[in-house]
Amino acid sequence: MSTEKYGLSNKIPVSLIGTLLLCLMFSIKINAQPNILKEKISLSVKNENIETILNLISKKCHCYFSYDESIVNTTKTCGLKIHNILLDSVLRLIFPDTSLKFKAIEKHIIIYRHKIYDKTRNTSPEKKNIEIHGITIDAETHEKIAFASVGIRGTNLGTVSNIEGVFILKIPEAYQDSIICISNIGYSDVCIEINKMTETPKIIGLKRSYIAIQEIIIRNNEPVSLLKKALERKTENYVSTPTLLTGFYREGIISKNKQISCSEAMVEIYKSPYAAQFPEEQIKILQSRKFIRTQSSDSVMIKLKAGTDATFLLDFMAHDIDFLSGDCFERYNYRMSDMVTYNETSAYVIEFEQKNEYDSPSYKGRIFIESENLGIIGAEFEVDIKNMKKNSGNFVVKKRLNIQPKINSVKYIAAYKKIDDKLMINHVRGDMSLRVKKRKTLFAADFLIYFELVAFDAQTQSVTKFKRNEILKNNIIFIDSQNNYNPDFWGDNNYLSPDELPKQLPEKLIRGNLNYRP
Question: Could you give the number of structural domains in the chain?
Answer without folding.
Answer: 2
